[in-house]
Design brief:
The structure is a single chain. This protein is α/β, with parallel strands linked by helices. It has helices spanning 47-62, 73-89, 91-102, 106-129, 164-177, 192-203, 218-227, 240-250, 277-292, 312-323, 344-359, 397-400, 416-424, 439-448, 481-486, and strands at residues 13-15, 18-20, 27-32, 37-43, 134-136, 143-151, 154-158, 181-185, 211-213, 233-237, 256-260, 266-269, 304-308, 363-366, 387-390, 407-413, 431-435, 453-456, 475-476, 489-497. Helices cover 37% and strands 19% of the residues. It has a seven-stranded mixed beta sheet, with helices on both faces. It has a six-stranded mixed beta sheet with strand order 9-8-7-10-11-19, with helices on both faces. Helix 4 runs parallel beside helix 5 (164-177). The structure holds nicotinamide-adenine-dinucleotide. Nicotinamide-adenine-dinucleotide binds next to helix 7 and helix 8.
């Protein structure tokens, strides 16, 4: 693995190809969520650092004939593939680093690295296979008309803490494939794997200044990037409140804005999906996975179980039994199935949601508290037990708002119409699932769900070839798929008159 010593010495800004400390000299300790203890020190940037990084990205974009935006597509694709190979080489170390940073299990961290490598390969293949432009029939042989795609320019990429490396790759890979330069700002609490990725980009041969990184808070570094007059595009993944601020900050500059925001994702289970023992076991198992993988800190988490009344008691009883058996602990320990929440502050937010749900009449089936220290010995981090809240309804905050923790709410329905209405009764629209043994019903319901991804008899898988994003307040634009590349491009129509003549509109 490349040498990442700068991560521990506070020199985590990558500007114009050099690793630097913050201009102010400020640093921040990065805490391991499993024990609350610092394990790394990074630069704590502010607006000045953001400005320097944007200037470096602008210089690299302007460059000369050989600059990145004008590098042949085949070379850009080859570089992305080299990055994928380096990720595979460093899979174990990166998986471990992601685990310490974000609290997830090491195995989850490694699977994330596989997905990151896949994203780099996908966008390499996509641009390499494309025609260089689209010839348009102008209706006369005297005109050659072609639509080409050009990079947008300098991109500001702002990412969250739950999938730090994966979310970074969904932006960096298409941005580079399209020929842009960028400044990335990872979450201030989980920047480590993004720092490591910038090293790999350099090792793969990316020219200095194309990829820049500033670590630091959203309200300073992120806000400056969003409003910066020399930034052409802002791609943001995070919560609705911050995303709204980013859109407002970017509006006066009429920048392109892509927003990947939160979700409140329904998992609709029809009784017919549970008619056989295998069907029941699969639906319960997947509902557990939907809600509790990475302690529910997943934008597409199936946090709302919407189950048909006739199977509700059996389903919830089994789900609860299994939720109580989930093994919590440090993500690096053997046999652990769920790590801690990412921070003390985030755990307090989750606790407040559960308290409000209980006040509003929800019935606690399991969890609802921090584990006894002995249960997760020897850790003392930000753990919270998987929690199932029964008898929930749409007026409860816990049903309407994104909790982003290991909290599953249970609602019931009697008819198909009722199920659809409940599943769509959210201001978000990121993802949702329908479970049914009746293929016609499943497709009928899927067709009416107002969500960017709909799973039938599954939950959570995504494909790099398929667009990812949300309806409603889950965002603007799409990542992955051809649309995920299009976000980073401008279309240019070049109209060449092969036999120019005077127009003679004006007589004089
Ligand atoms: P967050 O909104 O608090 O922060 C996200 C990023 O934005 C961080 O880098 C943060 O520093 C920065 N930021 C905060 N305020 C800012 C501002 N005013 N201007 C510019 N940048 C600012 O989100 P989070 O808590 O890190 O992540 C969790 C959220 O991310 C959840 O809502 C989750 O659903 C969402 N998410 C969505 C997707 C998706 O694909 N739709 C994927 C992952 C996470």
């Amino acid at each position: 693995m490349a040498d990442h010593k700068h991560q521990y010495a506070g020199r985590t800004h990558h500007v114009g190809g050099e690793w630097r400390p913050a201009v102010s000299g400020a640093t921040r300790e990065i805490l391991d969520p499993a024990d609350g203890r610092p394990f790394a020190v990074v630069a704590e940037g502010d607006e000045k650092d953001a400005d320097l990084a944007v200037a470096a990205a602008r210089d690299a974009f302007a460059g000369g004939q050989g600059a990145w935006p004008r590098t042949p597509v085949a070379e850009r694709a080859a570089l992305l593939r080299r990055v994928a190979d380096l990720l595979v080489r460093d899979r174990d170390e990166l998986g471990l680093l992601e685990s310490r940073d974000a609290g997830k299990t090491v195995e989850e961290g490694r699977v994330d690295v596989d997905c990151v490598a896949d994203a780099f390969r996908y966008f390499a293949d996509l641009v390499a296979a494309e025609a260089p432009g689209r010839v348009v029939d102008a209706g006369t042989p005297d005109v050659h008309s072609v639509v080409v795609h050009e990079p947008v320019g300098v991109c500001a990429l702002i990412t969250p803490w739950n999938y730090p490396l994966l979310q970074a790759s969904w932006k960096i890979a298409p941005a580079l494939a399209a020929g842009n330069t960028f400044v990335i700002k990872p979450s201030e609490i989980t920047p480590m794997t993004t720092v490591a990725l910038l090293d790999l980009l350099a090792e793969a041969g990316l020219p200095a200044g194309v990829a820049n990184l500033v670590t630091g808070p959203g309200h300073t570094v992120g806000a400056r990037l969003a409003e910066h007059p020399d930034v052409d595009l802002v791609s943001f993944t995070g919560g609705l409140a911050s995303g709204t601020k980013v859109a407002q900050a970017a509006a006066p500059g009429v920048k392109k804005v892509a927003l990947e925001l939160g979700g409140k994702n329904p998992n609709v289970v029809f009784a017919d999906a549970c008619a056989t023992d295998d069907g029941f076991d699969t639906a319960v198992d997947q509902a557990l996975n939907a809600a509790f993988i990475h302690s529910g800190q997943v934008c597409s988490a199936g946090a709302r179980l919407i189950v048909e009344e006739s199977v509700r008691e059996r389903f919830v009883a089994e789900l609860t039994r299994r939720a109580q058996k989930i093994r919590l602990g440090r993500g690096t320990a053997d046999g652990v199935e769920c790590g801690p929440l990412v921070s003390e502050q985030h755990r307090a937010k989750v606790e407040a949601y559960v308290a409000s749900a209980l006040q509003e009449g929800a019935v606690l089936r399991c969890g609802g508290k921090r584990p006894e220290p002995s249960d997760v010995r020897p850790e003392s981090g930000y753990f919270y037990e998987p929690t199932v809240l029964d008898a929930c309804h749409r007026e409860m905050r816990v049903v309407r708002e994104e909790v982003f923790g290991p909290v599953l709410t249970v609602e019931t329905f009697r008819t198909e119409e009722e199920a659809i209405a409940l599943a769509n009764d959210t201001e978000y629209g990121l993802a949702g699932a329908v479970w049914s043994a009746d293929a016609s019903r499943a497709r009928r319901v899927a067709a009416r769900l107002r969500h960017g991804t709909v799973w039938i008899n599954d939950f959570h898988p995504y494909l790099p070839q398929a667009e990812w994003g949300g309806f409603g307040k889950s965002g603007v634009g799409r990542e992955l798929g051809p649309a995920g590349l299009a976000e980073y491009r401008e279309a240019k129509h070049v109209y060449q008159n092969l036999a120019p003549k005077p127009v003679r509109w004006f007589a004089g």
